[in-house]
Design brief:
4 helices; mainly alpha
Length: 140
């Protein structure tokens, strides 16, 4: 009897707690997730540019070669490749990739924040309600 009365009293408090804390927590943790993803993607690009300069350079020159060879005959591959290698001594810093990663993160941020605002209260309610049910089961 006392457990049922406590449940009736605590249920609205758990809902209010879930909404207040869950919205803020969900938004914060989704913001943190987008930030960590953005940092990791940019760090990956910079590490690949630093650690594997030859592989990265070969990919860079191959992409330029494929673009330039679209309208030329196949016999000019060696000449075009040597022109590209004299024009570009090394691969430039991946500014474009980092800017694109930043723009994508900024576009995804509002959607992630909305998802956090909806998923946070559900998560907090399930955890708090489960803890309350656990207390009731072990206390009886």
């Amino acid at each position: 009897m006392l457990n049922g009365l406590l449940t009736i009293v605590l249920f609205p408090l758990i809902i209010v707690w879930s909404v207040c804390y869950g919205v803020l927590g969900g938004i914060f943790f989704k913001l943190l997730a987008v930030y960590e993803n953005w940092i990791n993607l940019n760090r990956l690009q910079i590490i690949q540019w630093k650690r594997y300069p030859l592989r990265s350079y070969n990919k860079f020159t191959s992409a330029i070669l494929a673009h330039r060879m679209k309208s030329k005959p196949i016999e000019l591959i060696a000449l075009t490749n040597s022109q590209i290698q004299t024009e570009f001594k090394r691969e430039p810093f991946p500014f474009l990739v980092i800017v694109v990663n930043t723009l994508i993160a900024l576009v995804l941020l509002p959607f992630a924040l909305l998802m956090g605002a909806f998923q946070g209260p559900v998560f907090v309610f399930r955890k708090t309600w489960g803890a309350w049910q656990n207390i009731l089961q072990t206390g009886s």
